[in-house]
Amino acid sequence: MSSEDQRRGANGTEGVHAGGSTGGSASGSTxxxxxxxxxxxxxxxxxxxxxxxxxxxADMTEAGxxxxxxxxxxxxxxxxxxxxxxxxxxxxxxxxxxxxxxxVRYLTQVSMIGRERDPGxxxxxxxxxxxxxxxxxxxxxxxxxxxxxxxxxxATTLGRDTPAGARVAETVEFFEFLQVELLALMDRWKVYKxxxxxxxxxxxx
Length: 205
Known about the structure:
- With about 200 residues, this protein is mainly alpha-helical.
- The chain has helices spanning about 5-20, 20-30, 35-45, 45-60, 65-75, 85-95, 95-110, 130-140, 140-160, 165-195; strands spanning about 85, 115, 125-130.
- It contains ten helices and three strands, in the order αααααβααββααα.
- Strands 1-3-2 form a three-stranded antiparallel β-sheet.
- Residues about 10-35 have low confidence and may be disordered.
């Protein structure tokens, strides 16, 4: 083997050592950032993540959500792919499978998460909905409509000229106002998400 061949062989070996392999190096740098995301996951401070989960769960619990459901939701929110199995949730939060079951049942009922089946497996996987907050708040429209109808009947039953009837009638007016403003706010959010700029307050168009 000539001196030139030896140099070429050495350079080739160095290239493999630097990138793992020629093909592996290319896929690692261009494959949707998978390698970089893995590195970020490795250096992430898991104790800090756990503190965030517990802190946000405490905030939601204080706002009225069930504590275990709050912890499960926060754990899913902090997951890179926004999904975990029951066993993963149980291990991450150090709670029983029964506690996980009750929490995901509640979160499913209020449409904050969905359930899917792992391909080729009988395990259920729980996933946050796409556009979670938009979907959650948009669904409040039907809830507000139902409340308005019930309260409107209540105001009539109580008598709008009575103190109780007037109070209920004012509640109806508030929910009517809130519903209109909420729908307008959701439209403005869609514009903001698409353009990166706030929509005019007078309308999304």
